[in-house]
Amino acid sequence: MASNHAETSAANAPSSRPRREVDVAPSVESSGLPIISSSLTGDNFLVWSRAIKFALGARKKLSFIDGRAIRPNDNSDELNEWIRVDYMVITWILNSISKEIVDAFIYVSSARSLWLELEARYGGSNGPMIYSLEREVSLISQGEMSVTTHFTKTKML
User: Fold this and answer.
1) What is the DSSP secondary-structure string of 34-68?
2) Where is the Retrotransposon Copia-like N-terminal domain (predicted)?
3) 106 in helix, strand or coil?
């Protein structure tokens, strides 16, 4: 009876192995499922990138696009696991890019290089967006909208 209790305690004790950033719960993290509801079309990069960052952060994978997840050495035991998770992050991002533009990014070598390429292409110039927002703000009026609807519409800009 005492040995049975010891076995149960050992089975329920927390693992002495620390969890790494690349640990994955397979049932939750299938690379084939979209992780956000919107697709990158090019002109929505700022909103899309924020949604992707939230989704990756919630899955403990943000470090794969921001440069903190360093690829292990080629002779490291962790290399294959790191590559697998990096491919999963690439797949999540590619699955959230519209079909019209995704082919331009299919040959990337890592999630980090994909992110840098997306930022360079779509995240750089805010000039046209600023002009568009200023124009929309100048045209918006409450009219017959409720205060809540008007506030929400203004806030979305």
Assistant:
1) -SSSS-B-STTHHHHHHHHHHHHHHTT-THHHHT-
2) 29-72
3) coil
* Cα 71 from Cα 64, distance rounded (Å): 9
Rounded CA separation 42/48 (Å)? 9
**What pTM does this model have?**
0.66
In our burial notation (b when 16+ CB lie closer than 10 A, e otherwise), range 2-41 reads eeeeeeeeeeeeeeeeeeeebebeeeebebeeebbeebbe
The amino acid that residue 54 corresponds to is F
CB 37 within 8 A of CB 92: no
Each residue's pLDDT tens digit in the chain (157 positions)? 555 554 444 444 444 444 455 554 444 566 678 899 999 998 899 999 999 999 999 999 999 999 999 999 999 999 999 999 999 999 999 999 999 999 999 999 999 999 999 999 998 766 666 777 777 777 777 677 787 887 777 776 6
Residue 45: which of 122, 128, 129, 156 has the closest Cα?
122
Rounded-to-integer distance, Cα 157 and Cα 124, Å: 19
The residue extents of the domains of the chain are 19-124, 125-157
Distance (Å, rounded) from C-alpha 119 to C-alpha 1?
61
